[in-house]
Automatic annotation (TrEMBL):
It comes from Anaerococcus prevotii (strain ATCC 9321 / DSM 20548 / JCM 6508 / NCTC 11806 / PC1). Signal peptide: none annotated. This is Binding-protein-dependent transport systems inner membrane component. PROSITE patterns: ABC_TM1. It is a multi-pass membrane protein.
Length: 263
């Protein structure tokens, strides 16, 4: 059995090397070359000295934070409702269904909804301009795309809370709000942290939705990577920004995991 487990684990390690370590190593190697193929440190110097790149980094953090907060505000009440529903499986299917649809199709569907001739503009009297190519539209669409990845971890955390804890709380005279604040919320924080990781980290590097829904008005590190690889052909600078994104993602994961351990 030990030989069998070692053989299976070797496949796992091979997968990590091929699809995680090797791509990062290639990015690191490429980041030390300029657009002409000369070895240089100028990519890193340009990134940390450029106000535009620092601004893009802060903008990426801000948009990712707004998307995470928006999805959390929407996801927690829905997940709480889901745990008390008699048709959990049906509602879980509805939650996961959007993840089966291609991201590009969902983004283009929102173009019709958010344009000045769309139903949202008609309802909110925005016919003259619409919501398309605005920051609220970008946050709305990104939150819709990421919402299932926030709902599912929170639902699992809430659903795993033993019902005996809630009964004991009621027997001891606690109100519903006290039960929620003292028992349900603390015990569901693991799901909140897991969902925040699942939403915040991908949101740092969004570029497809920023192009389609935000137009050229919303610039993040993800769009900067796309620009350097597909437009300017400066792969070294694109690799540098990609490595910065990876480091930022690890920092965020470490911070959230530290918070999780404290809880």
């Amino acid at each position: 059995m030990n030989k069998k487990y070692r053989a299976l684990s070797s496949l796992y390690y091979l997968w990590i090397v091929l699809f995680i370590i090797a791509p990062i190593a290639m990015l690191l190697y490429q980041s030390f070359f300029d657009i002409y193929g000369n070895f240089t440190f100028d990519n890193y110097i340009s990134y940390f000295r450029s106000g535009n790149y620092i601004k893009m980094t802060l903008n990426s953090f801000l948009t990712a934070f707004l998307i995470t907060i928006t999805t959390l505000i929407l996801a927690y009440p829905f997940a709480y409702f889901l745990t008390n529903s008699k048709n959990k499986e049906f509602f879980l299917l509805l939650v996961t269904l959007p993840t089966w649809i291609n991201l590009l199709l969902k983004a283009y569907a929102f173009i019709g909804l958010l344009s000045k001739h769309g139903p949202i503009a008609q309802v909110f009297s925005l016919v003259s301009e619409g919501l398309l190519f605005t920051n609220p539209a970008f946050v709305l669409v990104a939150s819709y795309v990421e919402l299932p990845f926030m709902i599912l971890p929170i639902f699992r955390a809430l659903d795993s809370i033993p019902n005996e804890y809630l009964i004991a709380s009621e027997d001891l005279g606690a109100s519903r709000w006290q039960t929620f604040r003292k028992i349900i919320l603390p015990l569901s924080m693991d799901g909140v942290i897991a969902g925040s990781q699942a939403v915040f980290i991908p949101s740092l590097s969004l570029f497809l939705i920023t192009r389609i829904i935000g137009g050229n008005k919303i610039i993040t590190l993800g769009t900067a990577v796309e620009e350097h690889y597909l437009v300017t052909q400066n792969w070294g600078m694109g690799a540098t920004i990609g490595l910065v994104l990876i480091v930022l993602m690890f920092v965020v994961m470490s911070a959230l995991n530290t918070r999780k351990d404290k809880n």
